[in-house]
């Protein structure tokens, strides 16, 4: 792995904003309701728009550099949580520094996305820990503010240390990954035992694993699965990697699937009224989370 200094800015951050990745996911997995109501499938599947190139480049970098070794290094570094300690509310302000001024079409800041997801979950009367999961699920994107490249923060996640599924978006880019021709990592099970359970599998490094590790002592198990695997589309949308799952993963899959539409389809043009909602969320955060969180 080359030192970060050896990468040019484009090689680190090809996306104009992190939202470009999410917009691409939305094109791949459009809201069934929206398709029915408003847009034709053709419109969603328009792969010729300019953002396709930056997203493609983003995945080329992601698939090239997310090796087993890279993931272990990042885990060793970031899972010490020795960078910052903040209240949840300060952490939202910190996360909102990710707002991208160069992109006027980026309609909502990071906090608005989190609040819209959590409000949509609350409106459907799911348990309060799931509302909190919605509020916190992208907190791991602060990795960008610690200088991490976009391809090590967002993007679909996938197991490393074993063969890549062809259900992962842009699978052709994996041939540039050093693990692709490794005698162990390139095999079906790689470093893992059959059906070892996802808890024993290293996922490509990004905001999912980071926020899971940050909050693993504070939320119920289904919420932790939502945090940890919400970008693992090859599993929860495409049904791949069954050979690594155990029965507990299969049981938890329904929760990850339940969560996904709130992440993808909860954007609404009128932002929630934060002033009015604040007391509810202050109580909710105080109920489950400690007064400060370590980053
Ligand atoms: Fe996310
Ligand atoms: Fe999200």
TrEMBL record:
It comes from the Bacteria. SUPFAM superfamilies: HD-domain/PDEase-like. Coiled coil: none annotated. The keyword Thylakoid does not apply. Pfam families: MIOX. It is found in: Cytoplasm. One of its GO terms (molecular function) is inositol oxygenase activity. Keywords: Cytoplasm, Iron, Metal-binding, Oxidoreductase. The keyword Chloroplast does not apply. GO terms for cellular component: cytoplasm. GO terms for biological process: inositol catabolic process. Its main location: cytoplasm. Its cofactor is Fe cation. This is Inositol oxygenase. It comes from Niastella caeni.
């Amino acid at each position: 792995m080359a030192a970060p200094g050896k990468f040019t800015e484009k090689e680190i951050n090809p996306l104009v904003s992190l939202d470009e990745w999410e917009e691409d996911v939305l094109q791949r997995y459009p809201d069934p309701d929206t398709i029915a109501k408003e847009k034709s499938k053709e419109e969603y599947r328009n792969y010729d728009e300019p953002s396709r190139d930056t997203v493609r480049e983003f995945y080329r970098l992601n698939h090239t550099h997310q090796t087993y070794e890279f993931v272990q290094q990042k885990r060793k570094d970031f899972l010490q949580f020795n960078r910052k300690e903040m209240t949840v509310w300060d952490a939202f302000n910190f996360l909102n520094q990710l707002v991208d001024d160069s992109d006027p079409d980026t309609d909502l800041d990071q906090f608005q996305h989190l609040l819209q997801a959590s409000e949509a979950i609350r409106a459907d009367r799911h348990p309060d820990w799931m509302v909190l999961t919605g509020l916190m699920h992208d907190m791991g994107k602060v990795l960008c503010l610690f200088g991490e490249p976009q391809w090590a923060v967002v993007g679909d996640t996938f197991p490393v240390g074993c063969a890549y599924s062809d259900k992962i978006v842009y699978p052709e880019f994996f041939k540039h990954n050093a693990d692709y021709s490794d005698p162990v990592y390139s095999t079906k099970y790689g470093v893992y035992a059959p059906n070892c359970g996802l808890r024993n599998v290293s996922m490509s490094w990004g905001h999912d694993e980071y926020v899971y590790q940050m909050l693993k002592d504070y939320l119920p198990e289904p919420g932790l699965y939502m945090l940890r695997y919400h970008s693992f589309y090859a599993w929860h949308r495409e049904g791949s990697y069954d050979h690594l799952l155990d029965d507990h993963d299969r049981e938890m899959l329904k929760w990850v699937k339940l969560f996904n539409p709130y992440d993808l389809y909860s954007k609404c043009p009128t932002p929630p009224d934060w002033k009015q909602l604040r007391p509810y969320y202050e109580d909710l955060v105080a109920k489950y989370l400690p007064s400060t969180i370590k980053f």
